[in-house]
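ok trying this again, last paste got cut off
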Amino acid sequence: MNKVLIESYIKCLRESKLSAASINQKLSANRKLATEVEDNVLIDSRPANGIRAVKGVPFRGRRTGNWLTCEEAQKWLNAPDAKTLKGIRDRTLLAVLIGCGLRRAEASILSLSMEPDWIQTTEKYLGVEQDLTDAPCDYLGLRISN
């Protein structure tokens, strides 16, 4: 096990079309293995240092995730029955999630403070309250009635 072998391993991983994150994870495991092998005096420190010195694969581009199109978002918003109380609740929650870009886990610990024209979303995690986002009600398609 040496630096040249690790670099050829990286080349092989790139040819197999793995993502940069997957390749870097495998490299991290090899670096850890080199450290353990060196600590147990199975190889000299020079090859171990060479293995640890191999640079990771750079990330190219941005992670964009899976975004909803406007039509898909509208389909989700129209799914609950607006004639029932639960449907209105569900539609409101979906509007907040989609409009503020929140995840499901954030929705489960969400508290809302509603002012006449704004919704402020806050989460409380491990006893610490953190503002997530503010959004105008008309942007979310919500009407607040007193």
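PB: full thing came through this time. The first helix runs from residue 3 to 15.
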